[in-house]
Design the sequence.
């Protein structure tokens, strides 16, 4: 285990950015991290998946909003309320010991969304997206009990994988964003290199497996 891994193992809280003494690099890293956050990434992802070969675009857009609410908006509101009440340190929930309940709430919310889509015969592509999110979330939750795996890297890697599977090689450049956000999380001392790599590989592998099983 490297010295960096030991530091993260002993203290889950975020090391103050100012102490790193790299203002420009940190500013860029913070920007990349914010722009590539799971919530921001979910916005174009859900609509692109919903509209992929959609026979009725109006219906697809409606279900995209439904999916976004249960996938991202609801869980984000839960975290914001938690931050205001002092339960969580920040929107990223940087302290590993605080991450269990946001993960559980997110899983429950995504499951409700999947049930609604299934019962109302919503777009199967969105059902697949929610299924990937739920299964990935279960694994991430278990890992988080012992290790602070990167949700930023995992979310973006999964998005890049499913978009490439649906739209083809034109979406391959999205994997460059995975590298960028992984770099930003390490620079900001939110994760170690091992944690962003693990999040990336886990999400890519699980997404490919589910897409194969569902013939997507």
Sequence:
């Amino acid at each position: 285990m490297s010295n960096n891994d030991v530091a993260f193992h002993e203290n889950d809280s975020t090391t103050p950015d100012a102490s790193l003494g790299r203002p420009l690099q940190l500013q860029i890293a913070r920007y990349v991290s914010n722009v590539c956050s799971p919530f921001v990434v979910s916005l174009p992802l859900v609509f692109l998946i919903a509209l992929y070969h959609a026979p009725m675009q109006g219906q697809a857009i409606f279900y995209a909003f439904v999916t976004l609410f249960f996938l991202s908006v609801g869980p984000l509101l839960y975290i914001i309320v938690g931050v205001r009440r002092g339960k969580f340190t920040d929107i990223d929930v940087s302290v590993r010991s605080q991450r269990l309940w946001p993960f559980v709430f997110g899983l429950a919310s995504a499951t409700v969304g999947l049930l609604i889509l299934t019962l109302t015969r919503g777009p199967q592509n969105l059902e697949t997206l929610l299924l990937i999110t739920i299964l990935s979330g279960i694994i991430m939750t278990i890992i988080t009990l012992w290790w602070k795996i990167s949700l930023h890297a995992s979310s973006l890697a999964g998005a890049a994988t499913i978009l490439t599977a649906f739209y083809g090689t034109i979406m391959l450049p999205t994997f460059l964003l995975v590298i960028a956000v992984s770099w930003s999380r390490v620079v900001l001392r939110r994760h170690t290199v091992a944690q962003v790599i693990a999040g990336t590989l886990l999400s890519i592998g699980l997404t490919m497996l589910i897409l194969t099983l569902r013939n997507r």
Residues 1-11, 13-20 have pLDDT under 50 and may be disordered.
